[in-house]
Amino acid sequence: FLSSIAVLSFGARLLPHLPNFTPIGALALFAGAYLARKHWWGLLLPLFIMFVSDLFIGFYDVKLMAVVYGSFLLYAFIGRVLPKQNSLLVFGGALGGAVFFYLATNFAVWMFSPWYVKSVEGLMLSYTLALPFFRATLFGDLFFTGVFFGAFEFAKAYLFKTRPRLVMQN
Asked: Which N-terminal stretch is annotated as signal sequence (predicted)?
Protein backbone atom coordinates (compact mmCIF):
# COMPACT_ATOMS: atom_id res chain seq x y z
CA PHE A 1 0.00 0.00 0.00
CA LEU A 2 2.76 2.42 0.96
CA SER A 3 4.64 1.71 -2.25
CA SER A 4 1.51 2.63 -4.23
CA ILE A 5 1.24 5.91 -2.35
CA ALA A 6 4.94 6.61 -2.91
CA VAL A 7 4.62 5.97 -6.66
CA LEU A 8 1.49 8.14 -6.82
CA SER A 9 3.30 10.93 -4.95
CA PHE A 10 6.31 10.70 -7.25
CA GLY A 11 4.12 10.78 -10.36
CA ALA A 12 2.02 13.65 -9.04
CA ARG A 13 5.12 15.83 -8.78
CA LEU A 14 6.11 15.10 -12.38
CA LEU A 15 2.70 15.49 -14.01
CA PRO A 16 1.14 18.92 -14.54
CA HIS A 17 -0.72 20.01 -11.42
CA LEU A 18 -1.81 23.10 -9.55
CA PRO A 19 1.23 24.64 -7.87
CA ASN A 20 1.70 23.09 -4.42
CA PHE A 21 -1.31 20.76 -4.77
CA THR A 22 0.71 17.57 -4.32
CA PRO A 23 0.51 14.52 -2.06
CA ILE A 24 4.02 14.90 -0.60
CA GLY A 25 2.88 16.37 2.75
CA ALA A 26 0.24 13.66 3.12
CA LEU A 27 2.78 10.99 2.14
CA ALA A 28 5.15 12.28 4.83
CA LEU A 29 2.37 12.31 7.43
CA PHE A 30 1.27 8.79 6.41
CA ALA A 31 4.82 7.39 6.33
CA GLY A 32 5.45 8.89 9.75
CA ALA A 33 2.25 7.41 11.15
CA TYR A 34 2.49 3.90 9.72
CA LEU A 35 6.12 3.27 8.84
CA ALA A 36 8.38 5.43 11.00
CA ARG A 37 7.11 3.88 14.22
CA LYS A 38 8.94 0.67 13.30
CA HIS A 39 11.51 1.77 10.71
CA TRP A 40 13.46 5.03 10.93
CA TRP A 41 13.67 5.20 7.14
CA GLY A 42 9.94 5.87 7.11
CA LEU A 43 10.88 9.42 8.08
CA LEU A 44 13.10 9.66 5.01
CA LEU A 45 10.73 8.17 2.42
CA PRO A 46 9.11 11.51 1.48
CA LEU A 47 12.55 13.13 1.21
CA PHE A 48 13.68 10.33 -1.10
CA ILE A 49 10.58 10.84 -3.29
CA MET A 50 11.29 14.58 -3.35
CA PHE A 51 14.94 14.06 -4.25
CA VAL A 52 14.25 11.58 -7.06
CA SER A 53 11.51 13.77 -8.53
CA ASP A 54 13.79 16.81 -8.22
CA LEU A 55 16.27 14.94 -10.42
CA PHE A 56 13.65 15.24 -13.18
CA ILE A 57 12.15 18.61 -12.30
CA GLY A 58 15.39 20.34 -11.42
CA PHE A 59 17.05 21.58 -8.28
CA TYR A 60 17.05 25.14 -6.98
CA ASP A 61 18.75 27.15 -4.24
CA VAL A 62 20.26 24.77 -1.68
CA LYS A 63 19.15 26.87 1.31
CA LEU A 64 15.55 26.94 0.10
CA MET A 65 15.63 23.22 -0.67
CA ALA A 66 16.90 22.50 2.84
CA VAL A 67 13.92 24.36 4.31
CA VAL A 68 11.46 22.58 1.99
CA TYR A 69 12.92 19.15 2.74
CA GLY A 70 13.09 19.95 6.47
CA SER A 71 9.44 20.98 6.42
CA PHE A 72 8.44 17.64 4.93
CA LEU A 73 10.57 15.86 7.53
CA LEU A 74 8.52 17.68 10.17
CA TYR A 75 5.31 16.29 8.60
CA ALA A 76 6.78 12.78 9.08
CA PHE A 77 7.64 13.52 12.72
CA ILE A 78 4.10 14.83 13.26
CA GLY A 79 2.74 11.61 11.75
CA ARG A 80 4.99 9.55 13.99
CA VAL A 81 3.51 11.00 17.18
CA LEU A 82 -0.12 11.20 16.03
CA PRO A 83 -2.68 8.71 17.28
CA LYS A 84 -3.60 7.59 13.75
CA GLN A 85 -7.01 6.27 14.78
CA ASN A 86 -8.17 9.80 15.60
CA SER A 87 -9.14 11.40 12.29
CA LEU A 88 -9.54 14.85 13.83
CA LEU A 89 -5.93 14.77 15.06
CA VAL A 90 -4.71 13.38 11.73
CA PHE A 91 -6.33 16.28 9.86
CA GLY A 92 -4.97 18.60 12.55
CA GLY A 93 -1.51 17.20 11.80
CA ALA A 94 -2.01 17.91 8.10
CA LEU A 95 -3.16 21.44 8.92
CA GLY A 96 -0.20 22.00 11.25
CA GLY A 97 2.24 20.67 8.66
CA ALA A 98 0.80 22.94 5.96
CA VAL A 99 0.96 26.01 8.20
CA PHE A 100 4.55 25.26 9.20
CA PHE A 101 5.49 24.64 5.54
CA TYR A 102 3.94 27.99 4.54
CA LEU A 103 5.62 29.94 7.35
CA ALA A 104 9.04 28.30 7.02
CA THR A 105 9.37 28.22 3.24
CA ASN A 106 8.15 31.76 2.71
CA PHE A 107 10.38 33.05 5.48
CA ALA A 108 13.26 31.31 3.68
CA VAL A 109 12.26 32.86 0.34
CA TRP A 110 12.21 36.28 2.01
CA MET A 111 15.52 35.66 3.78
CA PHE A 112 17.55 34.04 0.99
CA SER A 113 16.20 35.55 -2.23
CA PRO A 114 16.72 39.05 -3.62
CA TRP A 115 12.99 39.41 -4.36
CA TYR A 116 11.95 41.09 -1.11
CA VAL A 117 13.22 44.00 0.95
CA LYS A 118 14.72 42.71 4.19
CA SER A 119 12.19 44.36 6.45
CA VAL A 120 8.96 43.46 8.21
CA GLU A 121 7.10 44.87 5.21
CA GLY A 122 9.10 42.66 2.85
CA LEU A 123 8.37 39.60 4.99
CA MET A 124 4.66 40.40 5.09
CA LEU A 125 4.70 40.86 1.30
CA SER A 126 6.33 37.44 0.95
CA TYR A 127 3.62 35.86 3.08
CA THR A 128 0.84 37.76 1.31
CA LEU A 129 1.97 36.82 -2.19
CA ALA A 130 2.28 33.18 -1.10
CA LEU A 131 -1.33 32.86 0.09
CA PRO A 132 -2.56 31.20 -3.16
CA PHE A 133 0.22 28.61 -2.80
CA PHE A 134 -0.66 28.09 0.86
CA ARG A 135 -4.29 27.49 -0.09
CA ALA A 136 -3.22 24.84 -2.63
CA THR A 137 -0.84 23.23 -0.12
CA LEU A 138 -3.55 23.13 2.52
CA PHE A 139 -6.20 21.69 0.20
CA GLY A 140 -3.74 19.17 -1.24
CA ASP A 141 -2.58 18.05 2.20
CA LEU A 142 -6.11 17.70 3.55
CA PHE A 143 -7.38 15.94 0.42
CA PHE A 144 -4.51 13.46 0.10
CA THR A 145 -4.37 12.87 3.86
CA GLY A 146 -8.05 11.89 3.75
CA VAL A 147 -7.46 9.64 0.74
CA PHE A 148 -4.32 7.94 2.10
CA PHE A 149 -5.41 7.42 5.70
CA GLY A 150 -9.01 6.66 4.71
CA ALA A 151 -8.08 4.14 2.02
CA PHE A 152 -5.61 2.41 4.32
CA GLU A 153 -8.02 2.16 7.22
CA PHE A 154 -10.73 0.91 4.84
CA ALA A 155 -8.37 -1.69 3.40
CA LYS A 156 -7.30 -2.75 6.88
CA ALA A 157 -10.87 -3.12 8.04
CA TYR A 158 -12.37 -4.80 4.98
CA LEU A 159 -9.69 -6.18 2.70
CA PHE A 160 -6.91 -7.33 4.99
CA LYS A 161 -9.16 -8.57 7.74
CA THR A 162 -8.35 -12.09 8.82
CA ARG A 163 -11.34 -14.34 8.73
CA PRO A 164 -11.84 -17.11 11.25
CA ARG A 165 -11.31 -20.55 9.80
CA LEU A 166 -13.73 -23.36 10.26
CA VAL A 167 -11.96 -26.16 12.05
CA MET A 168 -13.50 -29.58 11.74
CA GLN A 169 -13.12 -31.88 14.68
CA ASN A 170 -13.36 -35.66 14.51
From this structure: none
